[in-house]
Amino acid sequence: MATLKDVAARCGLTVTTVSRVLNNRGYISDKTRSKVYAAMEELNYQPNEVARSLSKKSTNTIGVIMPHIRHPYFSEMISNIENAASKKGYKILLANSKGADHKEKEYLDMCTSNRVAGVIVFSSTVKGLEFANSNIPLITVERFVENGTAAVECDNEQGGMLAAEALIKSGCKHLLIISGVSKSVMPADDRLKGFAKVCEERGVVYKAVSTSMNQYNNLEYHALLTGELKLDNEIDGIFASSDLIAAQVLQVCRKMGKRVPEDIKLIGFDDVLLSRLTTPPISTIHQPIKEMAEMAVDLVISSSEGKVVPKRTILPVSYIERESTK
Amino acid sequence: MATLKDVAARCGLTVTTVSRVLNNRGYISDKTRSKVYAAMEELNYQPNEVARSLSKKSTNTIGVIMPHIRHPYFSEMISNIENAASKKGYKILLANSKGADHKEKEYLDMCTSNRVAGVIVFSSTVKGLEFANSNIPLITVERFVENGTAAVECDNEQGGMLAAEALIKSGCKHLLIISGVSKSVMPADDRLKGFAKVCEERGVVYKAVSTSMNQYNNLEYHALLTGELKLDNEIDGIFASSDLIAAQVLQVCRKMGKRVPEDIKLIGFDDVLLSRLTTPPISTIHQPIKEMAEMAVDLVISSSEGKVVPKRTILPVSYIERESTK
């Protein structure tokens, strides 16, 4: 691999001059600049970013820690984050915590050691305490943490309200909501809050079912859904707290001979690719994933530059009607 | 942020001694070691990995370049690669090339500058030439490149044969295969080869349709599929070169009043989560994604350590029967 010294030797200049060209420091004539560039080209010289970042306080890398990557919501998020970061000249260091506390801590330490500009955390379990010792910006998505630098969320309560309103409007009388993981703080809790509020105002019967961490980690809800539908034959409207769960509702309904949307109307959450790929396509609450990803990247960059950033940013959601409610 | 000097001051030892503990070099008494660890803990000292990697030829980072992240196949791949890498103590630097030649070149340069241990490339367009100048191991997945270090593939031809055999066995007489992107070398070409071979041997009619780069980039095949099904009313078996396309076949069939599997039998490719989430679930050719990911990571590590690695590794596929062919 060609070094700075090789480049200097090739163009007959000192290492200091070549380094000044590379770092755009001080006065350099156009002729010198061209000479250096030509030598770099000839030798296929790649500046050592590792060495360069030593002189800076941080690298142009953003750490991303998420509990799942194959979950459709997280894969769309990482895709959008990579896109937003790349536009600003930042790279992504990706870590999958699988929701385990100790792995999250470990990855936070890894990010610190690697002098990332900041970390974006999507966590199911992250605790305020874990953040206290860190000196780099920590942006949480869909989770507000007291000690974090900033949080980006969508309006989950509004999402729950929109879903309840849409199901009631389409004539449903017995609702079921598949909500968050029990005994853990999840965005789905606020979705339930909004959903319950509308149901109570309109006097519509609803049942809320929480899921288990095991189901969440394995992306597997068939047994839970079959049990609930067997338990109550009158259910005619379901709000699932993710499109992933909604897709499984479609499968369970088909197995039990219930037609969607004729017998049961269904609304998911997230508006990921999957919701457009099922048969029938799933009506859902649109999360502004692209905008949330861009916002998280901007917050990392701004706070790494020492700017003051909003502690909490909440983006609106919207209802997307597809065939599962028509 | 605490430095090595702070740690040394806190435990009353020299920087050299602390550094020796940190790098596990030379003889250090247990007492000294404990002292240093205690001071590091107290000061929340994070070793500067950027500085440490300067003394090594490469960092423990693997670059991953893929054309899509939100495509279900690639999101499962990245999830499995991250998992395999993490087990070996490696981090992932992720880049989305969106299939653009210039972005792939740019990311390869970025990986070189960042002294990654190696790069895993999933490319739709990568050309042998682009690789020639690189000094780091380049592992391609599902693509063989003459100048690459090593390639990991699945047996695509066998996959095509298995799909044709399964459709014919279940009684299909007029087959349709949705194959790769026209005018580009894709794994789907070998799937077509195997499929055609079996059809010709058995004397079964089949039509092969190629897709466009635009459809591939937008993950959108509805218009193509509707057109083909309208053109030929006798089609009773479809082999789609991805589960993503197969999910759209289900949607188009439903729109056209054709039942799967009663009127049309359907087989996808990849065996990603999506194939288990559609209604009905999709029979598919299983790619050993987990094993391919582990193999790619092992190849990066082995070749970065200077070991001789196989130029080409081809893993077997298998047929998974679900409801779309029953």
Automatic annotation (TrEMBL), chains A, B:
GO MF annotations in UniProt: DNA-binding transcription factor activity; transcription cis-regulatory region binding
Entry keywords, A to Z: DNA-binding, Repressor, Transcription, Transcription regulation
Keyword Transcription regulation: yes
Domain (HTH lacI-type): residue spans on this chain: 2-56
Protein name (Swiss-Prot/TrEMBL): Transcriptional regulator, LacI family
A Pfam cross-reference name: LacI
Natural source organism: Butyrivibrio hungatei
Cross-referenced InterPro entries: HTH_LacI (IPR000843), LacI/GalR-like_sensor (IPR046335), Lambda_DNA-bd_dom_sf (IPR010982), Peripla_BP_I (IPR028082)
